[in-house]
From TrEMBL:
This is Alpha/beta hydrolase. GO terms for molecular function: hydrolase activity. It comes from the Bacteria. SUPFAM superfamilies: alpha/beta-Hydrolases (SSF53474). The keyword Hydrolase applies. The keyword Hydrolase applies. Keywords: Hydrolase. Residues 40-271 form the AB hydrolase-1 domain. One of its GO terms (cellular component) is membrane. The lineage of its organism: Bacteria, Bacillati, Actinomycetota, Actinomycetes, Propionibacteriales.
Amino acid sequence: MVTNDTASAVLAEPTQTYDVVGGGGVRLHAAEWGNRRGRPILFLHGWSASHVCWAHQLEGPLAEDFRLVAFDNRGHGMSEKPLDPDSYRDSQMWADDLAAVIDQLGLDRPVLVAWSYGGFIVSDYIRAYGEDRVGAVNLVGAAVMMKPPTFDHIGPDFLANAPEASQPDLATNIAAIRRFLDVCTAEPLSPDDWSAALAWNMVVPPAVRGALISREIDSDDVLARMSLPVLVTHGRSDTIVLPSMSEHVLDVCRTARPSWYDGVGHMPFSEDQARFDRELTDLAGAVS
């Protein structure tokens, strides 16, 4: 079983919280922990998640040296949840959200840590705003393309559960999210972490989940021209976003380097926190 003794599933109170005005005026919830004088690290969560997924990082050893910032994507967590599908299909909206967090919190060349769907958001941002305001990128089980109906490199355990998780019937989408959580990791999460994950998933309206997966995305144009350091972190046993997604990133992005986790699924930051935090420390420490 995946266990972690450095943080509880209930995230401690942040040192500061923010209401950020994102794309189209959508209100975004952001918060920070750690050393305000340190290099900023900005965490982006995935599909149907929230900033709470990073609890072990936000309260762990990273907090001694770095300014740790996390926010809830539009439609998630404590952020505003418009139900119009067009609020989630426009790449510029996502780019504007990330730009707003960086600008309104005054983050100086943060390291962007993008899990799963967060890979799309980082690509949206760099396409629209360039990479000058960013120090480095850590793609964590990250998706960079979504091409229905084939869904190249998206795993069978996502495709099997996401449609029912997007249905309005409560019993149907609860059952789908429970199945989804059971296959997110190679070994079961601790009971506290699993129940916290169920809770943050259920805060997301099913219509929002469905709108997120209705986009068609190809980030090769961004990856091919990136000059930033890019750490590609991926579990070899990931069945949500397949390892072949990261192999594709490594083929296209000349500055990317891999970090493969054997016996780990879609949540390496929880499944092997010590290694994940160590490698993130090295990446952030190398930013000039």
